[in-house]
């Protein structure tokens, strides 16, 4: 099992798919990495040699922001929006959708379970 950027890549997956298990790497970025390192995208992770794994690890660590550093960067961007009091920052602070989605219906993922008026406890 190859370990890259603190993530164990699944052995049975193709290399181009397995790289997407790393936060910050999607399909397009995975293909770009594999063309840069001249590795076969259809090769399985279990078939990687130590040298190929080291080349892949070095490419990702040196040229891409992934996992912890990317999480930190995204968090700082959201915190900056909240600190300056922008509309998007207020939406993040209130736990509501920040990208223009409707909230009269739907948006249950951000708003949480529905609170019906009849279920509220009387004091």
TrEMBL record:
GO molecular function, one term: rRNA binding
Pfam family, one: Ribosomal_S13
Positions of region (Disordered): 90-123
GO cellular component, one term: cytosol
Entry's Gene Ontology BP terms: translation
InterPro entries associated with the record: Rbsml_uS13_C, Ribosomal_uS13, Ribosomal_uS13-like_H2TH, Ribosomal_uS13_bac-type
Sorted UniProt keywords: Ribonucleoprotein, Ribosomal protein, RNA-binding, rRNA-binding, tRNA-binding
Family: Belongs to the universal ribosomal protein uS13 family.
Classification via NCBIfam families: uS13_bact (TIGR03631)
Role summary: Located at the top of the head of the 30S subunit, it contacts several helices of the 16S rRNA. In the 70S ribosome it contacts the 23S rRNA (bridge B1a) and protein L5 of the 50S subunit (bridge B1b), connecting the 2 subunits; these bridges are implicated in subunit movement. Contacts the tRNAs in the A and P-sites.
Complex formation: Part of the 30S ribosomal subunit. Forms a loose heterodimer with protein S19. Forms two bridges to the 50S subunit in the 70S ribosome.
Designated name of the protein: Small ribosomal subunit protein uS13
Biological source species: Eiseniibacteriota bacterium
């Amino acid at each position: 099992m190859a370990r890259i950027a603190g993530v164990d890549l699944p052995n049975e997956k193709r290399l181009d798919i397995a790289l997407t298990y790393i936060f910050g790497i999607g399909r397009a970025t995975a293909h770009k990495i594999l063309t840069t390192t001249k590795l076969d995208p259809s090769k399985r992770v279990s078939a990687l040699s130590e040298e190929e794994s080291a080349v892949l690890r070095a490419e990702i660590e040196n040229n891409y922001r992934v996992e912890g550093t990317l999480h930190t960067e995204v968090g700082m961007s959201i915190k900056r929006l909240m600190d300056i009091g922008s509309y998007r920052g207020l939406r993040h602070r209130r736990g509501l959708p920040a990208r223009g989605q409707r909230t009269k219906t739907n948006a249950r993922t951000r708003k949480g379970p529905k609170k019906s008026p009849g279920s509220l406890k009387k004091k």
